[in-house]
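QA checklist item 7 of 12: single-chain prediction sanity check.
[x] sequence parsed
[x] length recorded as 676
[x] structure emitted
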Amino acid sequence: MIDVKEHIYDDDPNQGHVDVKTVLKDVDYFFLGNGLIQAAVQVAPAGEGTPIGLIIMNPEHLRKKREALSFDPDTGLEKTMIQLTDLQARQHTLPQNISATWDTVDLLPAVSLQYRLNDILVKELFYCPYQHKPILRRVITIDNRAENKQSIILKTGVCNQNIEHKCKIAAGETVQVYFDYDLDQEGRSVQINKITLEKQPPDNVAYWRNRTQIFTGNVLFDRFFKAANYQLAGMLSRSGKVDASIWQYNREWVRDHAFMALGLILSGHHQIARTLLERLINEFVSDEGDCVDSSEKRAPEDVELDQNGTLLYVLEKYVLWTGELELVRQYWDKIEKIAEFPLKEVFRHEPSGMFHNSREYWERHQAHGIEDGIELIYQVFPALGLKSASLMARLLGKYESAIRWAQQSEKLKQAILNHPQFAMVDERGFIKRKDLNGAVQETINPLPGSGLPPGVPLSSDFEHFLNPDSAAALPIAYGFVSPRSSVATATMKSLEQLWNQGWNFGGYGRYNMTSEADAHGPWPFASLFIARTAVETGEFEKVWRVINWLGKISGSRSGSWFEMYGPRVAPPYPQVGITPWTWAEMILLMVHHIVGFRPEAEGIRFMPRLLPRLSTLRCQISIRGYMGNIEIEQDEGLSEVRFETDAEVILSDSVSILLAYPQKDFKLKAVVPALE
């Protein structure tokens, strides 16, 4: 059984400078990085914490917020803020009317700030100008809005370094100052230097010119895709390290990181995705094919049995999107073991043919009351993964394995959906878990010594229900069942219970809050599970409800959301962090579901679903070294989709078109019926 001490952390947000807190009132974190340096611009305008702080990190080291290289134990992030004084040493006030947005500098991702310091308008721009240097650049524009000349001293710093710039600014004139933040050779400290601006190197600009871009004309969708695209790619170290929740866990998971790789693949960051996948195969899969979670190898009863299938599924998507088989060919021996691991006798439940143990998708285990049983997602993702492994085997000419894995995948699917005693469905749609006799495990009760802190629902004195669980949406989102099926309809109806359970500001909980081992509250990436599924089922108002909710909560300006929103008990739990998986979910929503761009074995399936109130969509998508330029628009007079393309068409129908993989850049246009 897992030692409950694993869940105990010592990062007390009430100890130290207020900036040690990850959750500050109305805070946004804008993340930038190039694999060699990592930074977050903290924007906290509501009076708690440094209003504009710069958090600089080495991406090769997963750390707490208080351990950032630019964090001072006594003053927090205060020294990183811009301070203006006049020659009489009178300090201007704190920033007022702060606006913060995503921007670009020669196509490079950038954070743009604007605020007032009395009669001075200040604009700041942060970006990583180089692909192969650990440097963050900060451009400060001082605009004198007074009626007279001003003599200004600009001051800033980082930890024990201070730097200043003196200037005289006539009324109505502007001055620009440039600073570079550079990690030392060991990556253990940061230096700040005043520089003169030089031309951007072309390699970084060319890189971002060829990534996926989406424009809908809707403020929230456009902001959120841009934020996800910029930040997911920027958070991985050059070796492929990334915290599963920044500043929170300082740990890594195959599942979380595989989904991050999927987001990177769909947004055109194929080399970064390959680096991450290669690292997962090399460092996070044992010689037996077991995938680690929370940076730990588990006993059979505690293995997260979905992880193998998830990794195989994402590897297949890498092959389809890039056309590159070399990665799977190079690691085929390991990939075989990944596919075979869940099929071991120790996991097999003979009466059903499915898999069993004492762990569940959200990582509750025996101490939390999870009994030996059959977990829905521990069947669905192995089935999806075996199907993916079968395709990869066929592409490599390994037909015996391809046939075996395809058969195993289909057997699992039939058991999940149709077994007379153990099928993972009932009148509620997909159900979370059954015991070894086929009864639904409806409730759990934690064991003595579970380590649960007082105040979390699972430690409270009432019944703790397992259903519904937001993960039940995933078989629908991933095409395991038809979105028009009765099980899909029932599942989505049941999942509505997760909206606003025990809170009133929106969002879906990850599962029934009565069995929540953490604070009760909504989870952004679980909410996006349901939003993605709602696109497939045609419940478009649910999609808009999630997007509008994400546009209202803390993190909406930067598109960097906390793992969950609730009264986290920290310690013993860690402070809540920013979860990169959420960015991957946003990319999946946009690219796979709304644009409907889906590479398959035979070609590219294009099945657009332009939501009501999105009248047009333009995008460029990177596929196998070429760019697809796509336009989608609505026409109320149409009853079926009309396609135009200069690519080779394999076949088309009233809702989709199948294209041959490109040999050059191509254009694709769809005019779709207006949806209500």
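[x] summary fact logged: The chain has a mean pLDDT of 95.
[ ] second reviewer sign-off
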